[in-house]
Amino acid sequence: MELENCAENPELVGTCFLKRKEELQVYEKYCQNKPRSEVVWRQCGDSLFFQECQKKLDHKLSLDAYLLKPVQRITKYQLMLKVHTVKTSEIQ
């Protein structure tokens, strides 16, 4: 079941997340290690290697901005589910 298919049956949204429980666990480990990646980035972020990679790949954002994306994504999921729960209970 895909999330897009839940428009007709919003009560099934939770099932989508439960089906992907194992896939989503990678976010848990990622978030636990985020402080360590920040320390490493502070130590190495100014290195020529990372600057060259960013330039070569024509990335506008630095690596630390990309490292933050998964953390932002998982918090958006949480907020989305909270809003969904409130909206669904209002409808019922």
UniProtKB/TrEMBL annotation:
Signal peptide: none annotated. Transmembrane segments: none annotated. Keywords: Guanine-nucleotide releasing factor. Residues 1-92 form the DH domain. SUPFAM superfamilies: DBL homology domain (DH-domain) (SSF48065). InterPro entries: DBL_dom_sf, DH_dom, RhoGEF_Guanine_NuclExch_SF. It holds the Pfam family RhoGEF. This is Guanine nucleotide exchange factor DBS. It comes from Ilyodon furcidens (goldbreast splitfin).
